[in-house]
Amino acid sequence: MSDITRDDVAHLARLARLAVTDDELDTFSRQIDAIVDTVSAVGDIPDDVPPTAQVVPQTNVLRPDATEPSLPREAALAGAPAAEEGRFRVPRILGEEL
Amino acid sequence: MTAVSMPGVESAPYTVEEVCEQFDPVMGLEVHVELNTTTKMFCGCANAFGAEPNTNVCPVCLGLPGALPRVNGAAVASAITIGLALNCQVRERSGFARKNYFYPDMPKNFQISQYEDPIVFDGYLDVPLDDGTTWRVEIERAHMEEDTGKSLHVGGATGRIHGADYSLLDYNRSGVPLIEIVTRPIVGAGVRAPEVARAYVTALRDVLRGLGVSDVRMDQGSMRCDANVSLMPKGTSAFGTRTETKNVNSLRSVERAVRYEMGRHAGVLLSGGTIRQETRHFDEQSGTTSPGRPKETFADYRFFPEPDLPPLEPSADWVETLRARLPERPWERRARIQTEWGLSDEELRDLVNADALDLVADTVDAGAPPEAARSWWVSYLAQQANTAGVALPALAITPAQVARVVALVAEGTLTNKLARQVVDGVLAGEGEPDEVVAGRGLAVVSDESALTAAVDEALAAQPAVAEKIRAGKTKAAGAIVGAVMKATRGQADAARVQELVLERCR
Amino acid sequence: MNELLTLDAAELARRLHAREVSSVEVTRAHLERIEAVDGNGDGDGGPDGVHAFLHVDAEGALAAAEAADRAIADGGPASALAGVPIALKDNLTTIDMPTTCASRILEGWRPPYDATVVARLRAAGLVPLGKTNLDEFAMGSSTENSAFGPSRNPWDLSRIPGGSGGGSSAAVAAGEAPLALGSDTGGSIRQPGAVTGTVGVKPTYGTVSRFGLVAFSSSLDQIGPCARSVLDAALLHEVIGGHDPRDQTSVDAPLPPVVEAALAGARGDLAGVRVGVVSQFAGEGYQPGVSAAFTDAVRVLGELGADVVEVSCPSFSYALPAYYLIAPSEASSNLARFDAMRYGLRVGDDGTRSTDDVMSLTREVGFGAEVKRRIMIGTYALSAGSYDALYGKAQRARTLIVRDFTAAFETCDVLVSPTTPTTAFPIGERADDPLAIYLADLCTIPSNLAGNAALSVPCGTSADDGLPVGLQVMAPALADDRAYRVAAAYETARGESTGPRIPELRALEGSR
Ligand SMILES: [Mg+2]
Ligand SMILES: [Zn+2]
């Protein structure tokens, strides 16, 4: 049924921002292939069965448009790997890939 | 890489007229509008422009582990209102979805948006063009989503993203409610395509401003337009490959970007090249576009239903309540006002250009006659705004206050000259018009006995003049009137003084 | 062993309220117990103990205990469980303790806020002792996937304590805490409860706020109690449950009367209660000792007056595949936020690398193998080419499972099954076979997919290995009280007091 190759795993890893190693490409392709084979059992289900995304009984749960306290800036930045001038410092950003 | 797709070396070799001899342009416009709600889309942080970095943030809009989004009801109401104003259907059951992609300004690395079931869909906007005709732009959908944070690029030569050493992130804007309004392909505009694009965005801006749901400031990013352009050879009907131009930050740029891309596409196509589907950036300086970073892989956003938020099923009652509150469309309102106030086209245009239409209308609503209201705003107040270097709406006086000044003049408490001093007082922060009148002692002296006494005094001081008047030389009364006005520091009604002088000399 | 360590929370609470004992004494006894038996086997010379805890906050616990004692002395707001210590699964945010989800990527992270359930515990005067171990980001059924080393089953330290909430259940079983909180996405409260001989409850989805629970699979995750008795679980359930506007999936309805139900169950019989035995949860793959203990439990329910019938839920065969599509899909999105930008680990930021590269390196180093595997499966299941065939079909499977439950609850008040097909397996036994481990959640997963209530109550030990077996009781959504009533009746009838019975740990204690 499924046939997850090393290339597929490499592609998935890129999408998911995981710098997987060469060894992992082998292990993961084997394991993911086996798992996908198993879970593909849901493929028997006819499409006239409607999907269920969540089991929440309510609808229209809305919040009033009233301000609530924000975090103090020190608390917001406290966990940051790097911060500067009240902002989160991050490595150089490649141009938008949108 | 072929020469035609190299960044920075392209020019637009064809004019729109030339392009349209051989091609029909197709446009699609995507407009993102930030709502001006008090709080963000999914948390209670203030939705405010220009705050100190990272001061309007919380676990939700920072995407901290464990935080959950909570939908802002006012944003949903605004979304429905916008849809109704654009003649859209409201979906009976809609919901949020996650759009997954990694980007540092997006704290969760997914954007909560809507996907298959936007809250409103299938509408249109009849857009007025310069020649007085109307162009119907069909709206495919408008959906709710959240804005990203903002990054500041440090180092490198330009302070731009390319060549920067690192970036600094401010998440105050993260989670600000956005409505994305997407048109259906706009076909058949031909040479007018750039004009139609600008007119559509202008009309949309005016409608949204009229609804009061957004600041719609393109310069501040509260309204942003992406323009998709493609060409198809004349006589064919299959759309060509399109490009999506971003960073179009003014109404004029919308028109220029479309014009440029039409010419560029034609240049590429006519030289035997092919258009690459890509995102391009508009440069305000040069009026040209340049390609963004090529996509590494086909964008796969892996949309799926947002599990943290229950579905929306706006009740018919709610929708009808919102529909009942819809204001007139701005251009319809302008037409009505022009008739009601008896304005010439030029007078109306001046009002609109001076950003004074709403101010005058509000002044009229506060009880002032249209002519007086208009005259205050376009002359004296416009001068004051000009002197102060601020926009007319930013002047420290309200339409209600102007209406009160007009009323004080009408009832004779103020002369026009005094009224200007009252306005000066209001602008200087001295309080309401009546407070300024009292504070500066500006009311016309209308106490008859006081005036009579002042007249008698002046006559006594100038017996020779008084004699002339009694002898019938009424022109001599001017000297006495002047003396009285001087004595009352100009706060008397000169006409009444004249009458009194003549009466006393009879 | 200090008697305070073997008491049920309800009994502890009674003594605390009667001021026969102080919360400080009780808390100190538990802290000493943790010190004695919780060694993590990290080679520092300490004993290889249960390793239920990733973080113990002795100072904070004693301060909270003192406050509880004062409140009780003042006759103040002292709630039923005021002064009772509790352990918290380390995927719940706590403002005064780190929250790591047993992952390197969050090592040392201190949240700036408390989860709603934690805030409610504090308000009720419970005493948080520390944070318990789990499979990294709650992905697993053995706690072996913790980045900080596995927890061990107090019944046999060479075996797994279940997972993902192995730390919470092991702490309760080992007498390190009378109560704990867990989170259950596919069985992570119930399955550890079963294999450690403790009670574990997954409340109806939406009845306990998820605000502050680090999300694994948002449409399945539910916080719930771990305890030594059904009544204890109900008492804790009442503290943490109920509507919370900070979670818009939270149901705005009164909590089912779980404490009343537990009390009624313990007193009364089960006359007229219709109990359905799900025929799909038997046969191949079920350990004989587990099946025997389960059959005996069903016999007891019959003796209590319940009408026992067999019911068939054929679509439950789709539950495991559907779960292993839905949970990884949601997880791939939920875990995208761990990107080295705003908090947590950052690896490889040498001034030349881009954000993309630093994100990828950090996530590669910061996540364990199971987490990476599930992120990739989820990424795959949601991608344009496979969405319809995988994620979309899994959602349809969910519909069928909901329908099976609905039909079964038309004829039954509750459904029962073994909680898990086998007793605790040896640590490492299934380490290289993710699919084998997934089978541990076979019986628990359907209730996560459908959102109904389900709990596990100890039903003796398996004759083949002497290890604990759990009886799962499932009830319709918002009828959690039914499960409590049946479980409490069964627990009373069985007569065996639970409480820590951990022979090997006595040796550890002695070695101290
Ligand atoms: Mg968008
Ligand atoms: Zn916020």
Automatic annotation (TrEMBL), chain B:
* Ranges of residues in domain Asn/Gln amidotransferase: 358-505
Keyword Metal-binding attached: no
What are its E.C. numbers?
6.3.5.-
Q: Which InterPro entries match?
A: Asn/Gln-tRNA_amidoTrfase_suB/E, Asn/Gln-tRNA_Trfase_suB/E_cat, Asn/Gln_amidotransferase, Asn/Gln_tRNA_amidoTrase-B-like, GatB, GatB_Yqey_C_2, Gln-tRNA_amidoTrfase_suB_CS, Gln_synth/guanido_kin_cat_dom
Which reactions does this protein catalyse?
L-aspartyl-tRNA(Asn) + L-glutamine + ATP + H2O = L-asparaginyl-tRNA(Asn) + L-glutamate + ADP + phosphate + 2 H(+); L-glutamyl-tRNA(Gln) + L-glutamine + ATP + H2O = L-glutaminyl-tRNA(Gln) + L-glutamate + ADP + phosphate + H(+)
Please give the superkingdom of this protein's source: Bacteria
User: Which GO terms fall under biological process for this protein?
Assistant: glutaminyl-tRNAGln biosynthesis via transamidation; translation
Keyword ATP-binding in record: yes
A molecular function (GO) held by this record is: ATP binding
Keyword annotations for this protein, in alphabetical order, are:
ATP-binding, Ligase, Nucleotide-binding, Protein biosynthesis, Transferase
Described function: Allows the formation of correctly charged Asn-tRNA(Asn) or Gln-tRNA(Gln) through the transamidation of misacylated Asp-tRNA(Asn) or Glu-tRNA(Gln) in organisms which lack either or both of asparaginyl-tRNA or glutaminyl-tRNA synthetases. The reaction takes place in the presence of glutamine and ATP through an activated phospho-Asp-tRNA(Asn) or phospho-Glu-tRNA(Gln).
Which NCBIfam families does the entry link to? gatB, PRK05477.1-2, PRK05477.1-3, PRK05477.1-4
According to its UniProt record, which protein family does this protein belong to?
Belongs to the GatB/GatE family. GatB subfamily.
Q: How does it assemble?
A: Heterotrimer of A, B and C subunits.
Xref: HAMAP family: GatB (MF_00121)
Q: What is this protein called?
A: Aspartyl/glutamyl-tRNA(Asn/Gln) amidotransferase subunit B
Record gene name:
gatB
